[in-house]
Amino acid sequence: MRAFKLALLLAALALPARAAEIDPAMIEAARKEGGVVWYSGMIVNQIVRPMVDAFEKKYPGIKVQYSRASGADNALKIVNEARARRPLADIFDGSTAFVSLLDTGLIAPFKPTESERYPSDRKDPAMLWSAANVYYYTAAYNTNAIPAAEAPQSYDDLLNPKWKGKIAWTYDLTVGGPPGFVHNILTLKGHDKGMEWLRAFAKQEPAVIPAAQRVVLDKAISGEYPIALMTLSYHSTISAAQGAPIQWLKMPPMIMSVNTFSVLKGAPHPNAARLLIEFLLSREGQEIMAANDYMPADPAVPIKDPTLTPEHGKFSILAVTPEEQKAGLPKWTAIYNEIFK
User: Could you tell me if residue 300 is inside a domain?
Assistant: First the structure.
């Protein structure tokens, strides 16, 4: 059984990070290219546009074009453009897209200078991806429907008969959905006891919502399903700050996944692509992530609510790399289909 990873900050991380020295030749080459195209799965108004505005202000003359779609759709576009020998995108983000593209040979290795200070689980030894933000998936509950003292605190608590028909999760068959949940339970309990637990949980009849994690959380906020599984913890804090009756749970361990950023082979603007990734990973870019309620990958960058991080919130995590997702997702999905469908 893999040991659970509890992220601990070294004291040195509290010190101001030195700005990385970006190759001036790369900056000049990026200016000559004049632009960069970014395929993203991130929310445009919340983070993409603020990041683009800051990048274009720092590097005048380099225009960023962006397009938002799901990871699967972005991967399909990239493959189709490559087949037509008309690549348009320079960089893309998203572990789902990365996993889909990993074996296509369309990803260019790149080791950002800015990534040197990042923990090992937030950068790829093969240099095919770098993480600019992270996600923590956990349960959340409606505070009007469930008193805090009665809220489930562990996965075993979810088996209480009183929660039958009152739990919802997404139909998203990724590490951020039921397959990731299956992986977490099997890691926590071992294969045999984990399978036994999953069969017991299936009898609770969790509702499958044909939408993303955010929509599932909204179902909990409305009280339709008082408990939501595999939701993003920071989504709960954003909604709670706006007055919504929602609270995320430190149900140990929580799944952590990274949002990967990669350069594409044959990118029309390769230098501008690398420069944009350097900016995303820089202290300035990471502070923009935090200011816009995304979880920065750089653990030295403070966020609005420090309890969202394992080291301050005192919760354990199971970190799942993109490579682990690629290797394990078919098995986890098959188990989900066997037990829950």
Answer: yes
